[in-house]
Structure formats: C-alpha cells, structure tokens
C-alpha cells in the first residue's frame, strides 16, 4: 500500500492550564539552569547547542590514538551509536553541521568487516539491541537525507538493511515460539534471555524500512515481531515488560518497565499506521502505546517525564540515564508519520523540555544536565552522556513542526540501498515470509559460527 501523505504539521496552542502551571513552576525555580523559551526557535537552538557541546566533551573518538565511534568507560558500545542518533537529530532540527564529519567518521569506522555493525572487538558484549541501535542511527541518516558517505563506503540505507537481514536470520523459534535473544553469541551472559528492547528495535527497523522502501516483506516482519511480543507476554495492555529466559520458555517475565521500550514500539507502530494508510488496527495500537506512557510522567510535576523504574530510588545506571532520550526522540518522530498525534505529544514534550532546561544547571559551567527533571533547577548531582542526550532530545523535539518530513525511497531519498546486504546471499528480504529454506538456515548457522570463532580470536588479547 502507498504510505499516507506526510505532514509538516505546525505547532498549535496547548491547554492554558499547562502553560500557567509551567510559568509558575519556572518562576519558583529562581530562573536557574539553561535559558529556554519554548516558543523561540533561536532560544531552543542556543540551548541545544550548549547541551551538545557539553555532551561532546565526553567523546574522544576524534582524538589521535583513540577509536572513532567509541565512548570511553563506563559507556558501552551501543550508547555511542545511540549518541550519533542524537547528533543526527541535532543537525536535522537545527541545521548546525559542525558535527557532521565526526558522525560520518564514527558511524563508518564501526561497521565491521561485513558492513553490518558486527564489530569484532565488541563480541564480548554484542547484543541484538546493541547492533540495532547503530542501525537505527543509519536509518535516521537515510530518512533525514543526511549527506551520503563516500561512494566506496557502505551507504546508510544499506547498513540498516544489513542489520535487518542479520537479525532476521537469528529469529529463534526453538524457544518461546520466536523472537530474538538479547545477546548474539552463545558465550555471552544474556544469551538465554529474550528481551523486549532487542525485539522492539528489530520491529522498529522493519516498520521504518517498510515505509522507506515500500517493500511489503519488511511490513510482514514488523507484524510478526509485534504479534510475537504480545503472544509471549512482553506486551500486556500496552505495558512493555523487560523480557524472560529461554531456559524457562519465557514463563518468567521480568515486569520492570522502561521508557525506551514503549518508545521504540511507538515509532514502529506509527510507521505501520502510515504504511497501512491509517489502518484502525495500527491506530489502536499506537493510541494504546501512547496512552500507557502516562506512567512515565511524574504524578507530582504535571507532564514531566521520569524513569519510574529507577529515578525515584536513585538506582539508575549508565544505560538508564539515556533512556528518556529515546522516548523523547521517538515521540517527536511519531508526529511526522502520524500527524494526528502532534498535539497530545507536545503536551508532554513542552513541560518536560522546560523542566530539563532547569535541571541543566550543574558543574562548573552551570549548564551540565542532571537526570531528575522533576527536581527543577535543583541539580541532582549526576552528569554524563545519557543525561545530556536526554535533555538534548526533549528540547530539540520542540522544533519538530519546523523540519521536513522524513524522506522515502520514492520521495526525496538520496541513500542507496542493498536488499541483500549483510546476508552473505542467504536471505532474500523480498521473498514471502516463512520460506527460508534449510540451506539458508544452515548457511546462517555457519555464518554465525564463523563470526563467533573470529570474534573469540580477535578478542583473545582483551581476555588475556
């Protein structure tokens, strides 16, 4: 089916009560934190420029002797891929291109020998979600018509397709009736766990590839992943639970709920809504997901996002600090493919952005961002890439009505694709679903084994 027309929906007035609450709240915080006028694009761009500058102080991949596309400890590999997604959004929303060369350098340096973000020096911790986050950034680059890499290097769309193909081959029906495992390699802790974020990222990639390329098979995979996530019990009444173990056939669901799980399925559902010409099924799913995200907004400070599983208890870790960035990112992106969502999304983004700006009051500069937006200008004492990413994404989302709609292959797209990328010729994404032959499964098994052996050899120096 042809996708729905996109809309450059303009921001509309929000309920007066919300504005009054936030004027009073801001005054009460003694005007501390970053200065941010929610209705002034120049003010928003100035605030996000400062946040991005502070964020990039953590990145050393552009320093001689360091590795492009890596963050230093304690950050895992996946979070650098996610950070590049925030930088892509920064360019998309503001037009500031000062980081573009750095983005291209880092994202291409990490593609791995097969151009599929299977990087040998990361095998000890490579999860399907880790690999997938790099693909999400590559896909954003394609959708945003970000400048293409050199012609002799892999292209953004082809990189996303390569990751999709490698993950489609890993779909595991032996345990839990389907789904992706968390970890890729059998020796890694977590290989016996199937989690919502790994499958959600795969769903998100499939749905967005369907919309970008018009290929029905990607949409079929998106349907398959969503349905499996419901059937296995990871989605219940639009609550997204963390995952379960294959050793118990996924009957031990971990019921912790994170913002990014809801967000990754929200944008996937929005793209499926668009791809299916606004089908009632996908609208109901999208509405249900969005409505249930109400649990991620403070009961004490109206419409201010918080990570309810750890933030109130002071137990958030390095990964958790970044999760709100993805919900903010994907909520804003949802409005470009499901324009009817715009007003209700902005009712959440505007108060959260105002609160985040107040919380960016830490460090010697007085601009470093903490995590607890609900604390207003009382800086919570935490700093890091995740806190900066979260503040950046929520604030630059204020500009979503001012940017062009995502491009597609037939409407403004400039990135070249490769439907067989990453599959070593064993998987044809245009083939009808369910027709993968035994020789393809064997080929995938051999490929995985070869990668594993190669990874163990490459990582031996790290172990010894």
Structure keywords:
464 residues, mainly alpha, two-stranded antiparallel sheet, 14 helices, 3% strand, disordered N terminus, disordered C terminus
Secondary structure blueprint with pairings:
Layout: H1 16-28, H2 41-56, H3 77-94, H4 100-109, H5 128-143, H6 156-168, E1 193-195, H7 196-213, H8 216-231, E2 235-236, E3 239-240, E4 243-245, H9 259-275, H10 280-292, H11 323-337, H12 342-359, E5 360-362, E6 368-369, H13 385-396, H14 438-463
Antiparallel strand pairs: 1-4, 2-3, 5-6
Structure notes:
With 464 residues, the chain is mainly α. It has 14 helices and six strands. The protein has helices spanning 16-28, 41-56, 77-94, 100-109, 128-143, 156-168, 196-213, 216-231, 259-275, 280-292, 323-337, 342-359, 385-396, 438-463, and strands at residues 193-195, 235-236, 239-240, 243-245, 360-362, 368-369. The strands form three sheets. The chain has a two-stranded antiparallel ribbon with strand order 1-4. It is globular, with a radius of gyration of 21 Å. Mean pLDDT is 88; it is low at 1-31 and 425-464.
């Amino acid at each position: 089916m042809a996708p729905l027309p996109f809309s450059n929906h303009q921001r509309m007035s929000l309920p007066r009560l919300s504005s009054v609450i936030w004027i009073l709240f801001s005054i009460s915080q003694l005007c501390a934190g970053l200065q941010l006028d929610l209705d002034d694009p120049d003010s928003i761009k100035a605030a996000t420029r400062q946040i991005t500058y502070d964020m990039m102080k953590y990145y050393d991949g552009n320093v001689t002797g360091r590795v492009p596309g890596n963050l230093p400890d304690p950050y895992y590999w996946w979070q650098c891929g996610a950070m590049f997604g925030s930088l892509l959004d920064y360019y998309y929303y503001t037009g500031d291109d000062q980081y573009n060369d750095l983005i291209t350098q880092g994202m291409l340096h990490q593609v791995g020998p097969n151009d599929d973000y299977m990087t040998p020096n990361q095998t000890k911790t490579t999860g399907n979600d880790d690999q997938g986050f790099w693909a999400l950034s590559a896909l954003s680059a394609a959708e945003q018509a970000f400048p293409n890499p050199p012609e002799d290097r892999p292209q953004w769309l082809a990189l996303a397709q390569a990751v999709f193909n490698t993950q489609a081959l890993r779909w595991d029906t032996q345990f839990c009736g389907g789904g992706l495992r968390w970890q890729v390699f059998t020796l890694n802790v977590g290989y016996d766990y199937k989690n919502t974020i790994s499958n959600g990222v795969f769903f998100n990639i499939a749905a967005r590839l369907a919309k970008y390329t018009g290929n029905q098979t990607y949409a079929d995979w998106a349907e398959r992943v969503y349905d499996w996530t419901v059937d296995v019990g990871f989605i219940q009444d639009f609550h997204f639970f963390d995952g379960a173990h294959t050793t118990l056939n996924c009957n031990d669901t971990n019921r912790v709920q994170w913002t990014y799980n809801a967000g990754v399925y929200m944008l996937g559902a929005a793209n499926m809504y668009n791809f299916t010409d606004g089908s009632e099924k996908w609208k109901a799913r999208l509405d249900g997901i969005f409505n249930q995200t109400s649990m991620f907004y403070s009961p004490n400070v109206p419409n201010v996002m918080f990570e309810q599983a750890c933030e109130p208890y002071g137990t958030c870790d390095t990964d958790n600090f970044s999760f709100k960035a993805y919900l903010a990112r994907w909520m804003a992106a949802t409005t470009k493919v499901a324009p009817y969502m715009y007003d209700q999304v902005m009712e959440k983004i505007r108060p959260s952005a105002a609160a985040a700006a107040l919380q960016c009051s830490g460090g010697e500069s007085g601009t470093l961002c903490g995590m607890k937006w609900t604390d207003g200008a009382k800086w919570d004492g935490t700093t890091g890439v995740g806190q900066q990413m979260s503040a950046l994404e929520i604030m630059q989302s204020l500009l979503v009505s001012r940017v062009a709609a995502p491009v597609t292959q037939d409407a403004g797209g400039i990135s070249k694709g490769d439907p067989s990328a990453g599959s070593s010729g064993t998987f044809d994404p245009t083939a009808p679903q369910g027709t993968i032959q035994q020789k393809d499964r064997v080929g995938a098994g051999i490929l995985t084994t070869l990668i594993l052996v190669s990874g163990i050899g490459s990582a031996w120096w790290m172990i010894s």
